[in-house]
Design goal:
The protein is about 10% helix and about 65% strand. It has about 210 residues and is mainly β.
Length: about 210
């Protein structure tokens, strides 16, 4: 009887011991990674044409990003941020970020991305302040903002402003228009800027996966 009792206790305790040693599987509602790869081709009369690639990775609240030729030509930046969002009739998303900049320009940069949507209207803005470690006189504020209307789900058009120093002058504020189409996971967008009576064009392709 004593042996039978010991065997019964062992059988009862076995599942508990196994579950304590085996890691629990991840929950079904764990957030998945979302990636986006983008490339923007810049064309401007009298200035150097160039391509600006970037990649983003998001998982739940976490946001990671890498850019090249964004803050300045021949310059790389890497970013980490935290995603917020909410709303029903009026939706909003906010991602405060912090980045390191290195290459032709070296420094650190606090930044953000923000979106506000209402019906077919959407306002998007992203910006940063680059603190140039080579000298405070080279620090600068960058901003890109666009207001768009999407009459149908796959097409949008709107207005845009950009404050940058990528072009010929040290500082420039550009204003223009945009039009974009979406097909499955691909976005194609064209931007036209009028800078000092000279036209600058940006063609952007984004792949989401």
């Amino acid at each position: 009887m004593r042996r039978l009792a010991c065997l019964a206790i062992a059988l009862v305790m076995l599942p508990t011991a196994v579950s304590a040693q085996t890691p629990a599987p991840p929950p079904d509602d764990a957030p998945a990674w979302e990636f986006a790869v983008a490339a923007s081709a810049y064309f401007s009369r009298g200035d150097e044409d160039f391509v600006q690639p970037s990649i983003t990775a998001d998982r739940g609240r976490l946001h990671l990003e890498g850019r090249y030729n964004y803050e300045a030509l021949d310059t790389t930046s890497v970013w980490a941020g935290y995603n917020f969002g909410g709303g029903e009739t009026v939706t909003w998303e906010l991602t405060p970020m912090f980045g390191a900049v290195f290459g032709a320009t070296d420094g650190i940069a606090p930044g953000y991305k923000a979106t506000i949507g209402w019906r077919k209207l959407e306002f998007y803005s992203e910006g940063e302040y680059v603190v140039d470690t080579g000298g405070s006189s080279n620090s600068f504020l960058y901003n890109w903002s666009e207001l768009t209307l999407a009459p149908v789900e796959w097409f949008r058009l709107g207005l845009i402003t950009q404050r940058t120093r990528l072009y010929g002058t040290d500082r420039a504020i550009d204003r223009g228009a945009l039009a974009g189409v979406s097909f499955r996971r691909i976005d194609l967008i064209g931007y036209v800027f009028d800078r000092d009576n000279e036209v600058a064009v940006i063609l952007t392709a984004v792949v989401n996966f």
